[in-house]
Each structure stands twice: as structure tokens, then as C-alpha cells.
Amino acid sequence: xxxxxxxxxxxxxxxxxxxxxxxxxxxxxxxxxxxxxxxxxxxxxxxxxxxxxxxxxxxxxxxxxxxxxxxxxxxxxxxxxxxxxxxxxxxxxxxxxxxxxxxxxxxxxxxxxxxxxxxxxxxxxxxxxxxxxxxxxxxxxxxxxxxxxxxxxxxxxxxxxxxxxxxxxxxxxxxxxxxxxxxxxxxxxxxxxxxxxxxxxxxxxxxxxxxxxxxxxxxxxxxxxxxxxxxxxxxxxxxxxxxxxxxxxxxxxxxxxxxxxxxxxxxxxxxxxxxxxxxxxxxxxxxxxxxxxxxxxxxxxxxxxxxxxxxxxxxxxxxxxxxxxxxxxxxxxxxxxxxxxxxxxxxxxxxxxxxxxxxxxxxxxxxxxxxxxxxxxxxxxxxxxxxxxxxxxxxxxxxxxxxxxxxxxxxxxxxxxxxxxxxxxxxxxxxxxxxxxxxxxxxxxxxxxxxxxxxxxxxxxxxxxxxxxxxxxxxxxxxxxxxxxxxxxxxxxxxxxxxxxxxxxxxxxxxxxxxxxxxxxxxxxxxxxxxxxxxxxxxxxxxxxxxxxxxxxxxxxxxxxxxxxxxxxxxxxxxxxxxxxxxxxxxxxxxxxxxxxxxxxxxxxxxxxxxxxxxxxxxxxxxxxxxxxxxxxxxxxxxxxxxxxxxxxxxxxxxxxxxxxxxxxxxxxxxxxxxxxxxxxxxxxxxxxxxxxxxxxxxxxxxxxxxxxxxxxxxxxxxxxxxxxxxxxxxxxxxxxxxxxx
Length: 742
Prior knowledge:
Layout: H1 3-18, H2 38-43, E1 49-51, H3 54-60, E2 77-80, E3 88-91, E4 94-95, E5 100-103, E6 106-107, E7 128-135, E8 149-155, E9 167-177, E10 182-192, E11 196-207, E12 220-221, E13 228-229, E14 239-252, E15 255-269, E16 277-294, E17 297-313, E18 331-349, E19 352-369, E20 382-404, E21 407-421, H4 441-449, E22 455-471, E23 474-485, H5 489-493, H6 499-504, E24 513-515, E25 523-535, E26 542-561, E27 578-598, E28 607-621, E29 626-627, E30 635-644, E31 647-656, E32 674-685, E33 688-695, E34 733-741
């Protein structure tokens, strides 16, 4: 046992002794003894939910503009790096599309074979007003077509003036990070009466490649014809991103109508764990919602429409020109996402609340690759997904019951019909080629076109959640949930076994190539969880919560060798593999611990709170006897927060164990254990807030266990790129931010 392992065990032992392992006090909402009234409906309280404290959103504003980084403050939740603004969520071992992500009520879908425009990238962290997470045990009303939980993010909502008055607010904020010279400016402006409200929120971010804490490779030209890159520079981590949102709101009596128009433009975003980079990403969206409160309850309807135009190619750190006059590999995708939903909260009695609703989502995707040069990538346009369709219709009902002053329950059922299809495809050329550019484009496309590609999935979700309040100092939550997710279009309908084409269909950041499988069935997850919560009478001075959980997934979609599903893929010598997908079984179990303690002995120094958390997750493919990919190692977080006059300070430490339970089929890399220390401080003076931060205070070198494999520079389409290192984390950075309310 090495010294880092001993320190890890010792810190966890200390945590158990002190009964103060926490990340923040509000990590999960508890339903107290309630009288179900209209107020309860408006508050939208649910069992097993979690919300983020305002001060943590504020601290994070000088840490990152990536909304995904906010997830790291939740116990058992992490963000997997996938570009500077496009991280993907991981909740208790389940990631990406297995998690329902709602941004302002919209169910968002990534329109990219590498998920370079993941749903979390569509909103800048400066525009986040609230974020809630439902891990594992998710009420059916919080979304279907997912098995790992739900993330609910809301942007800044309309604010109305008092009757007869006018409201005018303007706020400008900016920050700067020394490590990657990242800058951001955000403008938030509102004007409102008591009946009408108008808001504009806009942000622009620009960052260079970030630096690791040490040289992890040789210095030199990033690739032939490219600029010099240092040995500590993480290639393809630079980005530019702009987000704009116009919000119009009106209210009359108990009716509220919101209309949002959003535009995102990402002209450049590098990906250190992908073989290509974003060269254009434009998203236009409209989002309309209507709410009304009646004597019997509350009604909410929503309509949204999102259009995505996406392009990726080789960025500034990757080889552009190859042989046979191939200059770049332009790849494009267009996505259309239309949704309509209706939900009613109905008061049956003072103790019974019924929620019923329906959702419809129409998704269309075209993914095509324009020909390049005169060689194997010509003369046609390669159709990766042609007229992809995925339509979903759900209905659900949920019953929230307060049986007594100390016993509450939630029972729900959801039915979902998912219909998917895809048109005929063809490759760059209508031949099968041997030699250095071997591929079977004609053979593969002919086989794919002969298949029945129309699929209809009938999915059922169930949730049984309960809370027992033993006394003023302890309560218990328990429950079972069955959740179902249908395969996405890339999992079902990507068809080419050619190594180059397969490398482009990678949402995992592991450097491998993937071929879809039309025969995939939906995943079904069965989750059991029990939470024990101890706290003081006022839930103000201390708390301690422990949550063990167990998930079993039928028809888990995992990587397999191509020949296991009747496909023929070339062998490789670069340490990576070309793989396909198949339904298997998976088992995930773990433990989350969180709590807080107010240090009342230091009252002369303001309000000081000790917070922390510990998470352990273990995931295994029981069919293949292999470890699941991208499982976060055991990790411990401890934070000390102080509020003193105009000062708010936070000192946080993160300790992560080594990653040794690796997915063999995906050639996952090991990572060593590490510890990080961050320091944040804000000073409020009248209408101005000045923020300071130092991330990775001691400049610790580490490999991000969820960052994927490093393919951030060089000739990424050649076998010279090897699988021998994960993406390093950022070294020390001094950050400063300024916010002014005008």
C-alpha cells in the first residue's frame, strides 16, 4: 500500500469519526411533514431531488464557463471532460444520453457523432439560475427515456415589478484565468412592469490551450505544418463560444407566459480526447411556456423548437493535409428537435397530489461528410446517417401522498413509445478497396440498406419512493425505480466498419472506433436505494447523510468485438480498437455520504461551515466480466466556507483514488490517485462584487479519470497516434472576476 492510498484511507476514516463529510447542505431536498396545498405545488418539491446553493454557482463563475462543472458540487455526480464548454454528466456510473437533461424544460439531444454539442453546452454557466439533480431514484414526472437520473437546469427567469412601478436592472460580469488566458464577458439586462418583463442575457468566452502542471510529452510542432506546442500544453483544448438569450414574460392574475429565443455560436472548440474539433456550431431555439394556477391545482404547457448546424474538422493542433490531395475531412450534421409537453398538478385532497402529463418529441438528424481530395474520400458525399428519425411520445401519472405527519410517498408510472428509422446510405465511393486504405464501403452500405431499420420501442418506467421522518433529528428515504432508455441514432444507425469512419463515431472520448447496431434493444435499469439522514432540530447546524444504492441494467448497451454481432472490422496496431455495440447486462453499486457542520466556536470570524462528501461507485459488465467504462474512482471532497461581513471565502480539497478498475474492451488507461486544493474569495461592496480564485493551488499534475484518452495533437487519423495516456488536468491558475450591478 503506497502513501497516497494510506492518506486516502486515513482521510475517509477521519470523515466517519467526525460525522462531517459533506459537499453542501442542500445536496438533496427532503420532504418534511407536509400539508399538500397550492404552495407545495408551486415549490415543486420532490423526494430525492438535489439543488445547488447560490454561493456555489457564484464561486464557479470564476472557475469555469462550462455549465457541466457545476455538477461536480453534487455528491455522486461528476462532469466528464469533452471540450472546453461541452462536458457530459456522469451520475453514479451512468453517463451522457443515459441521463435526462432539461434546460428550461427542453429535452435536448446532441447532434454530433462525437457529442461536441452536448446539451450542457447550450447554456453558459453565467446564465444558470438554478440546477437540480435527481440521481437514480427519479420520479417519472421528471422525465423518461433515461436510466441514470435527471438534470434540470433553468436560466434566469423573468422578474416583474411591483404594481404601478417599473423595474430596470443591468449587470455586467467578466473573469480571467491565467492558465489558459481564458476570458469571458456576460451581460444581463432586464426591464419590467408588473405585467410585462423583458430580459437579455449574453456571454462570450475565449480561451487558449490550457497547461498541465508538468511536461507530459515532447515539445515541438503539433503536427506537420502546424505551430509549436509545448510539452506541458494540452493540445486541442482551446475554444471560443457565444451564447445569447432573449426572454419575454407576461403575467395576468395567476397566469404566466414565457417566450425565450436563444442563439449559440461556437466557431472553434478543440477536443483533446477526439480526433477532430468543432469548426462551427450554431444553435437556434425558441421556447414557449404557459402556466396557470386554479382552485384544483396547476397547469403547465410548453412548446420548443431547436435547430442545430454543426461542422467538425481538424483544428489548429491536428494534421490537416494527408496524402492523395486530402486536405481536411469536412464533416457536417444538422439536427431538428421539436417538443410539446403538458403537465397538470391536481389536488385531490389536502394530503393527495396527482401529477399527470404527456410529452411529444420529434427529432431529425442528417450526418454527412463532404468529399475531400481524389483518394478514398471521393468522389461522393459520405452519408453517415441519412434522414435519421427518432420520435417519442410519453404519458405518465404520479401520486404524491402524505399519509401522516411523518410518512410521505410518491408512486408513478410512465409509458413511452419511441419510433426510430433511417434512410439508405452510401460511402465516399461505390467500391471496396484493399491496401493501405482498406474499407468495405460498398459491402457495408449494401448490407445496411437491406435491413429493416424501422424500430418501435414500448418503454415502461416505474417509481416507488418513500420517506419516513422518525423524529426531529432523523429521517429515512427509500425507493425502487425502473427506468428505460431507447438507443440513440448513432448507436443504432452508424454503419461503416472502415477504421476512419468508425473513429468519427465516438461519443466516449476513448480514441476507439464504433459501428452501430440496428438490432439494439432499449436498456432497462432497476435501482434500489436507501438514505439515512441525521440532523439538528432546525436543520441548520449539522447534518449527516449516507446513501447506499444498487442498479441492475438489463440490455445494457456496451462495446463488443465486431465479430460478436456479425461484423468484420480490421485489426489495429495503435492500441485502439474498432468495436461495435450489443445488449448485455450491467451491475452498478455504490455509496454516497454527505453532511455539514457549523463551527459555532468561531463566531468572531463570521459564519464558518465545514462541508464534505465521499462517493464510491463500482460498475461491471456481468456478461463480459469486464469493468464498465468511465466509472469515477472513490473520491472525497472537503470544504470550509466562511461568511464574514462583505467577504465570502471557500477553501476546498478534492482527493481522488487511483483508477485501476478498467474497461478492457475499450483499452481504458489507468490514472494515479491525486489531491487538489482550490481557494475562492468574493468581496461585495454596494453594487460591485470582486472575486478571486486559485485552482489547483499546489500545481499538482494529474490525469483526469473521466477525461478519456489524449489524441489532442498530431496526425490523429494515422496509427502514429498511440493509446498510452489520458487527458491531463489543468495546472495552477489564478482567476479574477468582476461583477457590477448598474
